[in-house]
Amino acid sequence: MKDITTTGITAPTDAIEQLCLRRVGNCAVSVCVPFCMPSNAPDGYAASTLEWSLCGHSDDPVGCRGRRVEPYAECLAHLSDANRSSYLAGLQPGSDVDHCGTPFTDELLSELLTAVTASAAEGPCLGSAGFKQAKFIGDARFDRVEIRGDARFDGAVVHGNARFCRVKIRGTALFSGAQIGGHALFDWAQIDSGALFSGMTIEGDARFERAEIGGTAAFYRTEIGGNAGFNWAKIDGMALFDEAKISGDAPFRGVRVGGDARFNQVEIGGDTGFSGAEIGGNARFGGVVFERASTLGPLVCAKTLDLSEAVFATAVTIEAAATALRCRRTRWASTAVLRLRHATVDLSDAVLEFPVNVAAHHRPFAVYGKELAEPGLTDSRVRAVSVRGVDAVHLVLTDVDLTECLFTGAVHLDQLHLEGRCTLAFAPLGVRWCGVRLVRWTPRRTLAEEQHWRAGQSTDADRWTPAPEQVGVLEPAALAPTYRHLRKAFEDGKNEPGAADFYYGEMEMRRHDPAVPHGERVLLAAYWALSGYGLRASRALGWLLAAMTATVLAMMLWGLPQDEPKPRSTGTLTSNSITLTTETPEPVNPEGPYEERISVKRFEKALRVVINSVVFRSSGQELTIIGTYTEMVSRVAEPVLLGLAGLAIRSRVKR
Q1: How far apart are the C-alpha atoms of 311 and 95, rounded to whole Å?
Q2: Are 286 and 268 in contact (CB under 8 A)?
């Protein structure tokens, strides 16, 4: 990037190069002329590479720096009365004037403007106005003056007030490096092209209320000793305030900027606000320290509202409708509420010393009873994309879409507060084969990091969301603690059903973590397959139904004997006593074709055995050896499956 020097002020040229290098008059010159101050020069005078012929007046100890008034040898201030009258008589409304470096008293400036005034109703009218490095002993009064060309006041010195209220400048307004000893008043000013105020020093207030600037307005490194008012101003191009210093308040109520608005490293000693502001590009407040700002907005930003590295020293309410809100390394030293519309929020490494609530605002913001227009903002969601590096103890998210949010790396994530409807990405439903969904799983909320990891796997990768180019993919070992902390946050908030999905995710990451011992992973795989980690009642009930069906079938085919064994008694009669012995024959294995063993009677007996097994009871039914072992297995497996189903139901309805 090139740099240009604006009367000692260095500014990047990517935004204002076309503004600073223009054709003035009939020759191409640089608007931004470097200069240095001689040791014996009076205040406000500067030695520079000049593009005009100096005044020949010799009374000044360092020589007058005013431009000669051709064909005379002196500047306007040092012309004789006769020559000055002759020169002024030759002017008419719309005449070009060039009095760079000339010292002006109030009377001399009044005479000059009177000479280019057609009538009191119309006011003074100039063509191009050259007052570069001019010195105004009192006020610089240009109220209601019309300048049809460029207005050059760069490097000018005004000991009093600079009054440009309702001025009309049809070309470019150049005030870079000007020094104003009083107030700079540009209320209702109209500047058709760009305006360059970089490096200005204003000891009093700077007022641009309801001013209209047709191009870029640059205030790089401008210093304002009082308040700076831009209420209802309109800037068609960019508004550039980087490194400006404002000692008092800086209200921007209702301001309209067609391009970017940059306030990087601005110092504002008082309050500021952007109520009703509309910014057509990006709004950047990088590194700004808001000492007393209590509200910021409501404002509309068509692109990114960037608060990165900004500091909010007091409690603040931020209301904004924007495409994106960037708060990287932003610091809140007090409580804050961020009411947002449409925005994608990045809170990476933000510092939250007190509770900060990020909430979606569901209706357009209104100022003075009128809703703000939101051109180009169509996505109704407020989405958080990162809370990495944030101490989540004080973070509250309300009605925020967390589908793409990166959580891993946040501190105290188990104390995060999620209020309202905070949505997360869902895992793909079921298993597909040849484009057909074969099994439909229960919907499960997942973290964006898990989506990224699964998208990198070879199996079914196209159904998961891949990681953006600038985001690294984390392994399951790093994701399991994140799921665990979020689960605890929901459990501490008495939201047991909401915590279930995070427990599921934690177990999934453990099951896929290659560092977990193989035996434990096998156990987790069985736990997942049978009941979805005790969270899928339908899966456990399905396995229970399958087990019961298999048991009933096994009983009918092999477990029930061919015929019901009948007890047989034998005895011995001795004198007056009889001894009887009753024996039950061993069950006989069923014989014959399998289809003959499947009957209603055998089904009823088998079902009775199975139902009793589910509740750990013995049916008392005589069984074959195969049937006995089958019943033993079912009395262990089926109650476990029933318990897992009950556990899953409990996890979804637990309060």
Answers
A1: 50
A2: no
How far from 60 is each of 40, 56, 388, CA to CA, in Å? 11, 10, 65
* Residues above pLDDT 90, as percent of the chain: 53
The β-bridge partners of 3 are: 12
Distances 328 to 301, 308, 387, 433 between C-alpha atoms, Å = 18, 5, 9, 43
List all residues 6 or more positions away from 599 whose beta carbon is below 8 Å from its beta carbon: 556
HEC per residue, 511-543: HHCCCCCHHHHHHHHHHHHHHCCCCCHHHHHHH
**Which residue carries 């508004």 as its tokens?**
239
The amino acid at 122 = E
Residue 144's nearest CA partner among 172, 163, 157 is 163
Which DSSP letter does residue 8 get?
T
**For residue 389, how far is the Cα from the chain centroid?**
15
- pLDDT digit string (tens) for 487-523? 888 888 777 777 888 888 899 899 998 999 999 999 9
**pTM (2 d.p.):** 0.80
Instruction: For Cα atoms 653, 407, 301, give the angle at the middle one, nearest 5 degrees.
Output: 110
CA 615 to each of CA 444, 472, 608: distance values in angstroms, whole numbers, following the listed order: 31, 51, 11
How far apart CA 153 and CA 159 sit, in angstroms, is 14
For residues 423-454, b (16+ Cβ closer than 10 Å) or e, as one string? ebbebbeeeeeeeeeeeeebebbbbbbbbbbb
In eight-state DSSP terms, residue 558 is I
Q: 551-571, pLDDT tens digit by residue? A: 878 877 776 776 665 666 666
Decide: residue 130, CB within 10 A, 0-12 exposed, 13-18 middle, 19+ buried: buried
Q: SS3 string of 333-349?
A: CCCEEEEEECCEEECCC
Give CA–CA dist 649/644, Å, rounded.
9
CA distance 364 to 366: 6
Q: Distance between CA 403 and CA 426 in Å, rounded?
A: 8
List all residues 6 or more positions away from 43 whose beta carbon is below 8 Å from its beta carbon: 157
Report the C-alpha gap between 34 and 56 in whole angstroms. 23
Six-digit token pair at 420? Answer: 């309202």
Q: Which residues of 246-257 are buried (b: 16+ CB within 10 A; e: fewer)?
A: bbbbbbbbbbbb
Q: Token pair 């740099």 is at which residue?
A: 3
